[in-house]
Amino acid sequence: MKKWREHTYSFILLVVVLVLWEAIAFNIKMTFILPSPTDILMKLWELKKVLLLEHLPATLCIILIGLGISIILGVGLAISMNSSKIIEKAFYPLIIFSQMIPTIALAPIFILWFGYSIWSKVLVTVLITFFPITINTYDGLRAGSNDLKELLLTMGAKKKDVFLLVNVPSAMPHFFSGLKVAVTLSVIGAAIGEWLGAQAGLGYFSRRMMTQFDGAGVFAPIIVLSAMGIMLFLLVKWVENKTLMWRKSE
């Protein structure tokens, strides 16, 4: 009950925004530019089978593959940078620089290389999502207590033991923080890739509806994308709570 009370103000704000949106759309009466929330819901109901059975699986596949690659790449790179100063000095500036390039500018290049296959969209997703995972995990590995490390070494522990007993527990909360950011960005990355070139997917369907001047049709897959992003975020949050139960005890 307490949790529901915490979200009361957010719910009220959402209702106010939807009511204002409905009123403005009703007065404008130009649904191809600004469809009302009721128009969008009706279109969503009309297209539910196409969106959920055909285009949602295509987008979800891109997101899961992209996130999987980002986790492996990000965690591996973070561990390597933490264990070697040379690797840190070589890769850290490049990781930062990779985020300075607009993703929207690289997406057409990926499509040029890989065509309209799934891998052009996966690369866009990886480019967006690996950064928060890498940086957060790296910061978490460095946040381990030096006093505890020295204590373990004086007691005869090996570097591997220090890594598993100190670095990994200190990095886990940071890793999940980065993953929660990455999971929301992955939806954006997949949609951008599909928007620029695809044969299926929610981003592709939204773009197709735009060419037909169907405003409600443009918004309908966006609603599904948002819902999917929220569900993935809640899933990561649930895994975090189950994995880091020791934080609650503290």
CATH class of the largest domain: Mainly Alpha
CATH superfamily annotation of the largest domain: MetI-like
Q: Give the number of helices.
A: 12
CATH architecture of the largest domain: Orthogonal Bundle
CATH fold type of the largest domain: MetI-like fold
Mean pLDDT over the residues: 84
How can the largest sheet be summarized? Answer: none
Distance between the termini: 24 Å
Overall morphology:
elongated
Structural class: mainly alpha
How many strand elements?
0
Q: What is the N-to-C order of secondary-structure elements (H for helix, E for strand)?
A: HHHHHHHHHHHH
User: What percent strand?
Assistant: under 5%
Number of domains: 2
Gyration radius, to the nearest Å?
A: 22 Å
Q: Give unreliable regions as ranges.
A: none
Subcellular location: Cell membrane
Family: Belongs to the binding-protein-dependent transport system permease family.
Organism: Peribacillus glennii
Protein name: ABC transporter permease
Please, could you describe this protein's structure?
The chain is mostly helical and 250 residues long. It has helices at residues 2-6, 8-28, 37-46, 48-83, 85-98, 103-114, 118-142, 146-154, 159-196, 202-211, 215-243, 245-249. Helix 3 (37-46) packs across helix 11 (215-243) and helix 6 (103-114) crosses helix 7 (118-142). The model has no long low-confidence stretch (mean pLDDT 84). Residues 56-236 form the ABC transmembrane type-1 domain. Belongs to the binding-protein-dependent transport system permease family.
